[in-house]
Amino acid sequence: MDSTMERAGNFLPRVDENTASSNAVDRRVVTLTAPASAAAEQYRTLYYRLERMREQRPMKVVALTSAMPGEGKTVTSVNLALAAARANPERRILLVDADLRRGQVAPTLGMRNKQGLAELLAGECDVRDVVRRFNSTRLAVIPAGATPEESTQVLASARMKQFLKAVREGFDEVYVDLPPTLPFADAAILGHQMDGVLMVIRANVTPSKVVNQAVEQLAGAALVGCVLNGAEVNATPYLKNYVKK
């Protein structure tokens, strides 16, 4: 796996796009569907904050999780990875869907979710079979693939550790969409192997007690910040007035 992954960034221009339809991209992927919007600007701001953190510490592999399902972690992961790819077209950017229970990266991007991380970790295919290039961008995507019987066991395997080692060597930036933290052990297991973890929180929905529980479950992982998702522009007077102008 290592030698093949090391060459992954070099063959991206030749990878089939495998995109179902440009119209199939989720409208919440605002870095594509509404790049001039306030929401898209917030994702770019998030990316540059990570860049500033990288000046202080190595942070090649960044994971995103949430306390519970439905908080927008996948949409945030996709927007952040696309913001990274657009900001630095010379870098090799990879987005990995590690939510093997309910992978949503492929459908969010309008891509076909055939083989993916699950099949790669099971030894059923080669990395060349699962890495997709999104449209004409330099963004590489590895979808989740089919749901395995024992997702936690698969993510805790030696193959997963080998995979993470390989992508560190083959890509400049890697963004990993993890499962929600509280319902499953997956995020806690993988969180410790990441350089940084972002907690996505749905505004006015997720109780602070639940967020605290999720943070406690990730104890030991490099939690670098939280992303407040779904906040209304009206909640920020300055931004509201600025956008009106």
From TrEMBL:
Q: Which InterPro entries match?
A: AAA_dom, Bact_polysacc_biosynth/exp, P-loop_NTPase, Wzc-like_C
User: Which residue ranges does the record assign to the AAA domain?
Assistant: 59-204
One annotated GO molecular function: ATP binding
- Keywords for the protein's UniProt record, in alphabetical order: ATP-binding, Kinase, Nucleotide-binding, Transferase, Tyrosine-protein kinase
Q: Name one Pfam family in it.
A: AAA_31
What is the top-level taxon of the source organism? Bacteria
User: How is this protein named in the record?
Assistant: CpsD/CapB family tyrosine-protein kinase
Species of origin:
Corallococcus exercitus
